[in-house]
Design a protein that fits this description.
The complex is a heterotetramer of chains A (337), B (848), C (214) and D (290). By secondary structure, chain A is an alpha+beta fold. Chain A is built from 13 helices and twelve strands. Classes of the chains: A alpha+beta (337), B alpha+beta (848), C alpha+beta (214), D mainly alpha (290).
Chain lengths: 337, 848, 214, 290
């Protein structure tokens, strides 16, 4: 049977307006596809790689949208658009790290439609996987990128296990650095997990980047006030300044009361199948001044055990330098002309 | 993040077209209102009653034979109307040139569909159905099995001893000689090329181990001067390998087409770079008479060489429409365009260059091979040699090259075909030489750049051909001044923190015009002048701009002028294709000739009616009148008289030297007013080229490998300026097209399956608005070319090479010569090389 | 788009056209005809395909008009606009949310209409390039800016750019070139006329400010 | 219901990628059913079993109290193999039934251990042990025939006692060889597809179809082993087989059991002159655990 990579296949569109209804639908319908902003989903559908019988559109569910103040920090509905996140006063004031990361996602139109929940739950962008090839991640038994001649410039340098795809999310490392909690609604009820536990690598499940099981819904992301107004650093390195996914990005939150790092959380993405929280680095720099020397040390520590593929060796110095900057900072260069 | 509006170049706005009323002046083109309101109809915007949609089945293999095909299930689906396969295509037709020469069709050339796909993504068959949804479902119901055949996506792989052949019978085109001319008979055409196999020895491949391009036998070679002597005398000899990327044209409008048959004629709506020349192409592809083809192409969403005469794929809806007896719309998806749309061939180049101590190039040994795709050979390889020989004026030069076939999508001319590649291979070497010789980058280009009737290429009949003119040195000097070159070079520090700045300059040039085409206009009895334009409307605005020259000659205000374009049934003249930057030059000449013809006829009419000799009359301000005052008449009156007089005056008789297509159009328009039609017979001493000096500054972050283009200036030597705004758009637009080759555009292929991985924009990386400075600068010398009456030369291609090369030179100025050996240059290249202290990227591997 | 009839007024395709009519309609205003033929084909499809059935006739507010159309569940807004409502000013450049040619405003916010399901904009206001000029034909200040500066080349990307600019300039009426570039960064121009586009859009901003003053 | 999972390779060709995982349950259930049927049969329906006893007291007297059965090396190999086999089965199938963990590393390490131990066993068995003792011989086949006849109530002479290994044991060993070797051979090649310490990763060693079949074979052998090992453990725990199981730990079996079940003529345990053969009286034996 021939293949065509154009024109969305037919599906039944269900548009619930409450989480409960959404869950009912997901329980009743077998192979159904959950549609948030759709910026990732439409690729799968238009390429006719995924052909769900039912698509459940969450855009009508008010309770999934908006930013609410909580007793301790804020709660962001999973269906809140990235633009709303970028522009929200409280986020800009207290959790700028998240705003900065969201602002660097794709393009303005995509941020107007793409949601925070979607951004953290999006699938890998490995070009073999996205071409619909039967790789491990697609349920097959091969990785086409990690072969003697495979093209793997954008692939993993850490924690690869058969699959070498990376997680492409920009907001994920920021949320990990902010110690965010992800609220998941499952058939059994509500479940809250730490940001870093929301993501899983191929060694655990090679077909998914996160812990959501069919029928589960990510409903909200809570950010505790623990890191409000901390010293933040976010940097994303990509080829083009619009649209492109990160080659690597880094997010850090530090509390530096008196010249030395008291508390710190730091994460990178684009290096492995899940955003990596760098606990080793955190422990190593705690109590040290946030300067170039500490940064150097942190950078070297961060890339320990990194294994380059044929075309992605650059990611090692890149990650080293990004971690270094996230802790030691970077000198702003301005020429007078 | 573009830092463009900090530290930008301030300029005094230049005034162009001194002494002219229309030429060199800005105005609003007639097509703009429709564009800006969304009324402008591109091919895909047309609809027809009962229109069917068609979808293509593409080959998943790079080279294979269809072993088994079963479409019954698809045909049985409700809503599926017809399926077209390769065996239903008309046989390729021969071409009859205007001088009667018959050019035999090449049976091995590309066709719209095939049962032996030669690249992944080549169309096998097409399904027409009531809608796209049904057509797509039908494609998935088709059973098809392939027999895989050997394939090569890398030109070096197929050159290796025992390497795979991209086509069953070889890997290169072989041209057998043209038979001798027979007296009386039309000049004979060369026989269609055949396919042969070229393999190099292991010994010849030895260099590849060290990242240097191996140099085996090549079918093509030329030289002038004594290069060995040159290398002996040289103060510095450099031997460098450089590889340029394969880049898709990616016009935003894909090659979609709508077709239907009425009264035995096929009506085709599609985008094209030439309304006039696409009609015979369609007739040839469908193997029908030209008179049976109507082409509608009012607006074309970009071409850049990929739609020179549209694309052969348009016969698919045409044939399906005949089969299903209904209009058929073929909407080409972006992915399909990536395959069947065209691309620029990558060139692998190796240059041995000998410099005197003042930087003069005294010997140049150039070797290039191209990655051509499986079908007809492109001119990039030979052109690269001629452009380099003109732009750097080497004292002695040898050029060798070969065009290699591969199982990758077909290539075609892309803005500055061969020119970009030649310049981009050459410029980094000049930059390196300047550093080694301690010379200023502008200075070393000054001593080498062409001037006046500069020679190029090898001798033809004992004499080297030469350019009509070149004022590049002046452009270089003025550009350096405007860009504050010396200030930027002197500025310290070069590095602040992790950021390093570098400046780059590049010369650039390309063919700037052809001659010998026709113009056609009618002065209507209401006094309005109607220009017939066969030029494609692909955004350069030359479709309208060139006629300003005619209006100026006729002394008619632009408000009284109309331009007819975009529909071959509307009697258009024989026009050049808008490719190779020929239009502005060729068609202003034709417009000028036509306007002169109209002036002459006006004077003759006046003389007939008012007495005296035609030469006693003059034409200006919409009147023809006796010199020194007295009797005269308006153009409106003259038009009425022309109709009364008939004959040569209203188009019933036209000059014999016109192209038959122009004659046909004139006949159709005869009697509507004063009809002027003329062929451009103006003499031209030399070949027309246009030139650009490009300047850029980059800021590189050595910790991330990321860089921004801080500033850019292109200074143009393109003859007289016709329309400053569209010229500026071309100069900067094509510069960025070149810049794209430096900062990211590429193809990525999986070598094992011969499949393209970079089918999406986020993978092939066309530049975005944030990848270039927010205020780029351009200027033009506005010095008329002495060999053309209007003085204007073409501009489309010349800026491209300079755009790319000036960025590469700025990068090596910032980072040194040990960073890259190929374009594009990205964070990965920069970081790995900086880590290692030498170029680390696989230098010769294709599509990484 | 006054020459376009509302599809709902056409029940079946007029099959009594002369050839001349057909060609005329094809080239000028064939849209009404096409949406008719679409209605026809859609209803046949309705019978044959199981998924995507259910209630498909919907009314959307486009350019201030209530427009009815028969829309498949998997249909994108770009497709509905172009093929059901005849609003072909909205272009499809990539159909994958990475070129911006299909940008329209939904409740004043720019979206890639190639990546919006029509069924999700039922109760929202859609504005396309065709709805920008006022009914008397006066161009929107941003459109006028393009005319003033001869912005764009092939202009296939133009409608998307203009819609993005119109929305951006509402939030930031007096931007620097860099800010404007950021605002327009979701749109690709392959003629790479970015510099002239920015100039034209800056002029558009100026025109808008001028217009708001009077 | 498809027994294999198929995929379309980059060239659009259909290739099997592995077995359908429900076969795991099929194998487990099959194993379970066998145990139940067998246990029930033994408990309620099994006829008394008879051997032709040919020992003269003289012979019996020559048999030592503890009949040596398995050398230390043989036993060590046996338990190493068992351990790696269990690791392989659990790391292979637990993730498939929902217990997700980092399994691949354990799997290929256990696989390597098994491979080495099997290689050792082959050499050891071929050169240092009575290689043929585990393969059915003519008498086994003859006796099998006789037993069947007696089972269906036809007259037939009683079968001889076993040699070192009962026929069932030999057949089981054969099945294990088949399943084990196929999973080992395919498994070794599959190590080219993951990162191991042995060789650079190269998934293109074979063409897609060959690889697919290899994965299928590996899977089938794997699920096959589930049933086989279930049966094996079951027998190991059955009362009448305990002596054999024990001997796999201690290395010896008692003279009584030896004389009941094994024919000194076919499995001589003392080096003196071969025992004289004679027909004669019979003794009631254990039930046949075929």
């Amino acid at each position: 049977m021939a293949v065509i990579r154009d024109v969305m296949p037919a599906f039944e569109l269900v548009q619930p307006n409450s989480i409960t209804d959404a869950q009912k639908v997901l329980e009743q319908q077998g192979e159904s596809w959950v549609l948030a902003g759709g910026m990732d989903s439409f690729d799968w559908l238009k390429d006719r790689i995924k052909k769900p019988r039912v698509v459940v559109d969450l855009s009508g569910i008010a309770e999934l949208k908006g930013v609410r103040a909580t007793a301790d920090g804020i709660e962001i509905g999973a269906m809140t658009t990235l633009t709303e996140v970028v522009e929200h006063a409280v986020i800009r004031e207290k959790y700028k790290l998240l705003a900065e990361s969201a602002e660097l996602v794709a393009s303005p139109q995509i941020r107007n439609q793409g949601t925070l929940g979607g951004n953290v739950s999006q699938d890998a962008r490995c070009w073999y996987y996205r071409a619909g090839w039967p790789c491990y991640r697609a349920g097959g038994n091969i990785c086409y990128a990690d072969t003697p001649e495979g093209r793997n410039r954008e692939h993993a340098i850490l924690h690869a296990d058969r699959c070498v795809a990376v997680n492409p999310s920009d907001s994920a490392p920021a949320l990990i650095a902010l110690d965010a909690k992800f609220v998941i609604r499952t058939a059994k009820g509500e479940r809250v997990v730490d940001a870093e536990d929301y993501f899983i690598g191929p060694e655990i499940d090679i077909t998914r980047l996160h812990i959501l099981k069919p029928g589960d819904l990510l409903t909200a992301i809570r950010i505790p006030s623990t890191w409000a107004g901390a010293r933040f650093y976010f940097e994303k390195v990509r080829d083009r300044n619009v649209w492109d996914f990160p080659l690597l990005n880094v997010a850090s939150a530090m509390v530096v009361p008196s010249g030395s790092i008291e508390r710190i959380r730091i994460a990178v993405n684009g290096a492995a199948a899940r955003p990596l929280r760098l606990k080793v680095v955190e422990d190593a720099v705690r109590g040290k001044p946030p300067n170039a020397a500490t940064g150097e040390m942190a950078g070297k520590l961060a890339v320990m055990g990194a294994v380059p593929l044929q075309f992605n060796a650059y990611k090692i110095p890149l990650m080293r330098n990004l971690v270094k900057r996230a802790i030691g900072g970077v000198q702003e260069a301005t020429w007078t002309s | 993040m573009s830092k463009g509006d900090t530290g930008s170049v301030e300029t005094t706005p230049r005034v162009y077209g001194a002494g002219h009323k229309l030429i060199g002046k800005n105005y609003v083109t007639a097509d703009l209102y429709a564009k800006v309101t969304g009324q402008a109809k591109y091919a895909e915007d047309f609809h027809a009653e009962g229109m069917l949609f068609c979808k293509l089945l593409l080959s998943p293999l790079p080279h294979a034979r269809v072993k088994h095909l079963d479409v019954r299930q698809a045909l049985a689906m409700p809503g599926v109307k017809a399926i077209l396969t390769a065996d239903e295509l008309p046989p390729p037709a021969d071409t009859l040139t205007d001088n009667g020469t018959v050019i035999r069709a090449n049976p091995k050339s590309e066709r719209a569909l095939t049962m032996e796909p030669l690249y992944q993504g080549e169309p096998i068959l097409a399904v027409a159905a009531v809608d796209e949804f049904t057509a797509a479902e039908a494609i998935e119901k088709i059973r098809i099995e392939f027999e895989p055949l050997p394939f090569a996506i890398d030109p070096l792989d197929t050159l290796r001893p025992g390497g795979p052949n991209p086509r069953t019978d070889g890997n290169i085109w072989v041209q057998s000689p043209t038979p001798p001319a027979v007296v009386g008979a039309p000049p004979p055409a060369p026989p269609p090329p055949t396919i042969g196999a070229l393999k190099w020895t292991e010994a010849e491949f030895a260099d590849a181990k060290y990242g240097r391009l191996p140099m085996g036998k090549t079918p093509d070679e030329w030289s002038f001067g004594d290069i060995e002597a040159g290398f002996k005398d040289a103060a510095l000899v450099l031997d460098e390998t450089f590889v340029t990327p394969d880049t898709s044209h990616q016009p935003l409008e894909t090659r979609s087409a709508l077709a239907y048959w009425q009264n035995g004629k096929v009506y085709v709506h599609t985008g094209t770079q030439s309304t006039a020349q696409t009609v015979p192409a369609i007739a040839r592809w469908l193997n029908i008479d030209v008179s049976k083809v109507v082409l509608v192409s009012e607006y074309t969403g970009g071409g850049f060489g990929s739609k020179v005469t549209a694309g052969v794929s348009l016969i698919i809806p045409a044939l399906l429409s005949k089969k299903a007896n209904a209009p058929v719309m073929m909407r080409i998806s972006r992915e399909e365009e990536t395959f069947i749309g065209r691309a620029r061939p990558s060139l692998l180049g190796r240059m041995k260059v000998g410099f005197s101590k003042d930087g003069r190039i005294i010997a140049l040994d150039m070797f290039v091979i191209s990655n051509n795709g499986p079908y007809d050979a492109n001119g990039d390889v030979p052109t690269s040699g001629r452009i380099v020989s003109l732009l750097y004026q080497p004292v002695a030069m040898r050029w060798r090259g070969v065009t290699m076939l591969t199982n990758t999508p077909p290539r075609s001319a892309q803005s500055a075909p061969g020119g970009l590649q030649g310049i981009v291979i050459m410029e980094p070497i000049i930059a390196k030489a300047a550093r080694k010789l301690g010379l200023d980058q502008v200075a070393i280009r000054r001593v080498n750049c062409p001037e006046g009737k500069a020679p190029f290429g090898p001798e033809v009949k004992g004499k080297r051909p030469y350019a009509t003119s070149a004022f590049l040195r002046e452009a270089l000097d003025r550009g350096a001044e405007q860009f504050k070159w010396s200030e930027r070079v002197a500025r310290t520090p070069k590095r602040i923190g992790t950021k390093v700045r570098g400046v780059g300059v590049s010369l650039s040039c390309y063919v700037g015009g052809t001659v010998g085409f026709d113009g056609l206009l009618v002065i209507k009895p209401d006094g309005r002048v109607n220009f017939q334009s066969g030029i494609g409307n692909l955004g350069t605005e030359s479709v309208i701009d060139v006629h300003r020259a005619g209006a100026e000659v006729l002394g008619v205000p632009w408000e009284k002028c109309d331009v007819t374009w975009g529909d071959s049934s509307k009697n258009l003249p024989f026009t050049c294709v808008s490719g190779g930057s020929q239009t502005t030059h060729a068609m202003t000449r034709a417009a000028y000739a036509t306007a002169m013809d109209a002036r002459q006829k006006l004077k003759e009419i006046a003389a007939k009616k008012l007495g005296g000799k035609p030469e006693n009359y003059d034409v200006a301000n919409e009147r023809v009148f006796r010199k020194g005052g007295g009797a005269g008449m308006t153009l409106a009156q003259a038009a009425k008289y022309a109709i009364q007089l008939g004959g040569i005056y209203d188009g019933h008789e036209v000059s014999a030297d016109l192209n038959r297509r122009t004659k046909a159009s004139a006949v159709a328009l005869a009697g509507q007013g004063l009809l002027a039609a003329a062929k451009d017979n103006y003499p031209r001493d030399g070949v027309t080229f246009s030139y650009i000096a490009s300047f850029s500054e980059v800021e590189v972050d050595v910790e991330t490998g990321k860089y921004n283009i801080v500033d850019f200036l292109a200074y143009a030597d393109v003859g007289s300026v016709i329309h400053p705004r569209s010229l500026g758009g071309q100069v900067l637009g094509r510069s960025i097209l070149g810049i794209g080759h430096a900062i990211g555009q590429k193809w990525v292929y999986d070598p094992h399956y011969g499949a393209m991985l970079s089918t999406r924009f986020y993978q092939s990386k066309p530049p975005t608005i944030l990848d270039v400075p927010v205020d780029m600068q351009w200027a033009a010398l506005d010095i008329p070319d002495p060999e053309t009456p209007v003085g204007a030369r073409g501009v489309g291609e010349p800026p491209v090479g300079g755009g790319c090369a000036s960025i590469l030179n700025a990068l090596s100025d910032a980072l040194g010569d040990e960073i890259f050996q190929r374009a594009p240059v990205n964070a990965d290249t920069i970081l790995t090389s900086l880590e290692a202290g030498r170029p680390m990227q696989h230098p010769l591997m294709a599509h990484i | 788009m006054s020459d376009i009839e509302d599809p709902k007024t056409i029940e079946c395709p007029p099959n009594t056209l002369t050839r001349r009519d057909l060609i005329k309609r094809v080239i000028v205003g064939g849209v009404a005809v096409s949406s008719a033929s679409y209605l026809f084909r859609a209803s046949t499809l309705l019978r044959q395909s199981a998924p995507g059935t259910g209630e498909r006739l919907l009314t959307i507010n486009v350019n201030g008009q209530q427009r009815r159309a028969d829309v498949m569940k998997q249909e994108t807004l770009a497709w509905t606009l172009r093929h059901k409502l005849g609003l072909t000013g909205t272009k499809l450049g990539c159909d994958r949310a990475e070129c911006g040619s299909c940008t329209v405003l939904i409740d004043g916010v720019p979206h890639y209409s190639c990546s919006v399901l029509t069924h999700t904009v039922r109760d929202r206001k859609v504005l396309t390039i065709e709805g920008l000029a006022s009914s008397d034909g006066t161009l929107h200040p941003v459109q006028q800016g393009v005319i003033d500066e001869q912005g764009f080349q092939c202009a296939f990307c133009m409608p998307g750019f203009i819609m993005a600019a119109v929305a951006f300039l509402k939030t930031n009426p007096n931007p620097t070139r860099s800010e404007l570039a950021q605002g327009l960064s979701g749109n690709l121009c392959r003629c790479q006329d970015y510099d002239k586009i920015l100039t034209a859009m800056m002029r558009g901003a100026e025109n808008m400010r001028g217009a708001s003053r009077v | 219901m498809d027994l294999l999972e198929w995929a379309r390779n980059p060239w659009g060709q259909n290739i099997p990628i592995h077995i359908a995982w429900f076969l795991i349950w099929v194998a487990a259930i099959a194993g379970l059913l066998f145990l139940m049927v067998h246990a029930t049969y033994i408990r309620y329906f099994a006829k008394a079993r008879a051997f032709a006893n040919t020992d003269s007291p003289v012979v019996a007297a020559r048999i030592p109290e503890h009949v040596p059965r398995h050398s230390l090396t043989a036993r060590m190999f046996r338990w190493v193999m068992a351990a790696s086999m269990f690791t392989l089965l659990f790391t292979a199938f637990l993730p498939k039934v929902g217990f997700q963990f980092d399994w691949v590393t354990y799997h290929w390490i256990a696989g390597s251990v098994l491979t080495v131990s099997i290689l050792f066993h082959i050499i050891h068995a071929s050169f240092f042990m009575d290689f043929w003792s585990i393969w059915p011989d003519r008498i086994d086949l003859r006796d099998a025939g006789r037993r069947i006849l007696r089972f269906v109530g036809k007259p037939a002479p009683p079968p001889d006692r076993f040699a070192k290994y009962p026929l069932e044991n030999k057949l089981y060993h054969g099945a294990i060889i088949a399943a084990g070797l196929s999973s080992i051979v395919t498994g070794v090649f599959m190590m080219f597809r993951v990162r191991t310490i042995f060789f650079p990763r190269n998934p293109y060693l074979f063409n897609d179809m060959t690889w697919g079949l290899m994965y299928v074979l590996h899977g089938l052998a794997g699920v096959g082993l589930i049933s086989l090992i279930m049966a094996h453990v079951y027998f190991g725990l059955r009362p009448e087989k305990r002596a054999i199981t024990k001997s796999m730990i201690s290395g010896w079996m008692s003279r009584d059991f030896y004389l009941k079940e094994h024919d000194p003529a076919r499995w001589p345990v003392e080096t003196s002159a071969p025992p004289a053969r004679s027909q004669g009286a019979r003794t009631e034996g254990l039930t046949d655990a075929g």
